[in-house]
Design goal:
Elements (H helix, E strand, L loop, with lengths): L4 E5 L10 E9 L5 E4 L4 H6 L4 H7 L9 E5 L8 E9 L8 H14 L5 E5 L8 H15 L20 E5 L6 H25 L7 H12 L5 E5 L1 H7 L2 H7 L7 E7 L9 E12 L19 H16 L4 E11 L11 E3 L5 E3 L7 H15 L3 E6 L3 H7 L4 E5 L1 H14 L3 E3 L4 H5 L8 E2 L10 H10 L7 E6 L5 E2 L10 E2 L4 H11 L1
Bound molecules: ligand BES, manganese (II) ion and zinc ion (ZN).
Ligand BES binds next to helix 11.
């Protein structure tokens, strides 16, 4: 995984000696569908002397969001190729919608795989919104260019390597606020790309011990404190849920804790990030059907996201104390696997009656959440590929969000601002009533295996492990963490890195 280099330029875009230059293109609904070059493309449009938009229209461009049209410049400007990316209708405000820009930048950079150096001259307002717009362009460009290295043994003749160097055109390349956005985008994109790599890694290569090793290796030299609990330590420490799920696999479970302490901040707010790290989910004894089971290699996406988030935190150094808890296990059926009917004593002492070993995520998360609360925290922000019910209810792009009012609003607004929507869901009393156990404190799923309110059962269960008074959010990313279709916008195939940018925005809001 090599991330493209990133720099700011303020040279006239028409004179940039790069392999390709990306401009924006708007449609104008009030003008019979005529095309309008977006702000930033003025000098290029001028060099084409009125022929830019007619030629793009001839090539089929419509200005629709995410549409990419390539045009050879034949000497009109320095770059041999102009790439027009559709940004939709001409904006009414000072800049296009941020998500449209993110997706456009991502689509353009991906379409330019095979090019060495690419410049982007996309619309930037000259007001206080500029840093946020620049951030969207930088993040979209860096994430859209991601490609998983893969495992092919022979070089692919038609493989076009991802863009190696990105230049982003700004009014003033020496501007400190713009430079800060470049530093930030590099750290954020590194985190997202690392998560995508971890999620895309096959489950035989990334089992809990290897996953823990990879996270520890990534944390080296960052200043983060690292604690790794192995199987024996988990057993001795009373982590009944992680042990139960992990005991069925030859590859033992792990709990990884990473801690960031801000320097020189007296009693900072404390945030605990918790992630589900099931490196493969067969369902265990309650085994899953074969179809699509391979996708359960992505069942560690929550842990990957929180691990990568705290790496970005270590680089960005916000004035908030952040710790990350990655609960790792492989959910396998075997002679030593936990079973439906088992009663498990969890880290906080509560006893859980197991109904379905495929509801393993909440078992490992409950321990990690309880541990985070025992360590002392103001917020628990937990994310997991927890339920198929999330995908049924909200689809592949919108996460399910449950928790206490303040934390839910924190995550909802943070997610909306970065293009990672999360939709608030209730925690109804009747769903909790359906989880009464005859013999233990709570059952792990509805005691009649009723799938009604399936996603909510997960949230209701996890709430039991959050200490009173701690603000908490549960972000179910079963759908949004993994992209199965063709690449689109800045989403590439496989792991997406959701909800890293949400968590970072939330931490910013608490700063
Ligand atoms: N990892 C799955 C949830 C999942 C499903 C993630 C689809 C991504 C895509 C989780 O461990 C699971 O198996 N959940 C069960 C819970 C049920 C047994 C209560 C489910 O969703 O059916
Ligand atoms: Mn499962
Ligand atoms: Zn799972």
């Amino acid at each position: 995984m090599t991330q493209p280099s990133l720099s700011l330029v303020d040279t006239d875009p028409a004179e940039l000696a790069v392999d390709a230059i990306v401009i924006g293109l708007h449609s104008q609904p009030d003008d019979g569908g005529a095309l309008l070059p977006a702000a930033g493309a003025e000098s290029i449009a001028a060099a084409f002397d009125g022929r830019l938009t007619p030629t793009l229209a001839l090539l089929g461009a419509s200005g629709a969001p995410g549409e990419v049209t390539k045009l050879a410049t034949l000497g009109t400007i320095s770059a041999p190729l102009v790439v027009a990316v559709g940004l939709g209708d001409e904006p009414t405000g000072s800049a296009p919608d941020l998500e449209t820009l993110r997706r456009g930048a991502g689509a353009a950079v991906r379409a330019l795989a095979g090019s060495g150096t690419v410049a982007l001259a996309l619309p930037l307002p000259d007001d206080e919104d500029a840093p946020g717009v620049l951030r969207a362009i930088l993040e979209g460009a860096l994430l859209g260019g991601y490609k998983f290295a893969g495992y092919k043994t022979k070089p692919q003749p038609n493989r076009r390597d991802p863009v190696a160097a990105l230049q982003v055109h700004v009014p003033d390349a020496t501007d400190a606020a713009a430079a800060a956005e470049v530093t930030r985008a590099a750290a954020v994109a590194h985190a997202v790309r690392l998560t995508r790599d971890w999620v895309n890694t096959p489950p035989n290569v990334l089992r809990p011990p290897q996953f823990a090793d990879a996270v520890v290796a990534a944390a080296k030299g960052t200043g983060l404190q690292v604690e790794v609990l192995d199987f024996d330590e988990l057993k001795a420490g009373g982590y009944g849920g992680i042990v139960a799920v992990g005991q069925g696999s030859e590859a033992p479970p792990r709990l990884v804790k990473l801690t960031y302490v801000p320097e020189g901040v007296e009693s900072p707010k404390r945030v605990a990030l918790v992630g589900k790290g099931i490196t493969f989910d067969t369902g265990g004894i309650s085994i899953k059907p074969a179809a699509g089971m391979w996708e359960m290699k992505s069942d560690m996406a929550g842990a990957a996201a929180v691990g990568a988030t705290i790496l970005a935190v270590a680089a960005l150094k916000p004035p908030v104390a952040v710790s990350a808890y990655l609960a790792m296990a492989e959910n396998m059926p075997s002679g030593s696997a936990y079973r439906p009917g088992d009663v498990i004593t969890m880290f906080n002492g509560k006893r859980v009656e197991v109904y379905n070993t495929d509801a393993e995520g909440r078992m490992v998360l409950a321990d990690a959440i309880a541990r985070a609360c025992a360590d002392g925290t103001d917020y628990v922000l937990e994310t997991s590929t927890l339920t198929g019910g999330q995908v049924t209810a909200l689809g592949k792009r919108i996460a399910g969000l449950m928790g206490s009012d303040e934390a839910v609003e924190l995550i909802r607004s943070a997610g909306a601002s970065v293009g990672e929507p999360a939709w608030p869901m209730p925690l109804p009393d009747e769903v909790r009533k359906g989880m009464e156990s005859d013999i233990a404190d709570i059952s792990q799923t509805n005691s009649n295996l009723d799938r009604a309110g399936h996603m909510l059962q997960g949230g209701v269960f996890l709430r039991e492990f959050v200490t009173e008074g701690v603000e908490w959010a549960h972000i179910d990313i079963a759908g949004p963490s993994y992209h199965t279709g063709e690449p689109t916008g800045y989403w590439t195939k496989g792991g997406t890195g959701v909800p890293i940018r949400t968590l970072l925005a939330a931490i910013d809001q608490l700063s």
